[in-house]
Amino acid sequence: MSDLSEPVGTSDTTFSHVKPGDTPWRSDGLRDFFLYRDLGVAEATKGRVIAHLVKANMAPKKGTGWHRHEANFQIVIMTKGWAKFMYEDQVTLVEAGDCVHQRPGITHYLFDYSPDMEYLEIVSPADFKTVEVSPATQDIPVPTPWA
Description:
Blueprint: E1 34-38, H1 41-44, E2 50-56, E3 67-70, E4 73-80, E5 82-87, E6 90-95, E7 99-101, E8 108-113, E9 118-124, E10 129-132
Antiparallel strand pairs: 1-2, 2-9, 3-10, 4-7, 4-9, 5-6, 5-8
């Protein structure tokens, strides 16, 4: 595999077209309270980038916990519903239509989301690592109960 920092040429990637029924929602992703649907980008880019849809599967109880990702690039585009994150010391409401660029290494915590929450996440490299970090000193707001 070539260096992930090298420019991607047409010979380094393949064409990919994934339709909604082509890949299943899976429960074996990073968080057990979410479902994940692969969009074929990791395979097409030989691991340079991953794109997947993430949606709520269970009501929020404790959230993701404080963590950071070892990644060069990460965006979240909320396609349905909403989610509340702590980005370092700031509560951030991300609603349908919003796009968040999570700078490399930012400490964050997803603590609340709507039952219909769904977002597109794009990360480079595809095999990015998640690192749990010590809890912040501030309190985490309480999640909104689902009806």
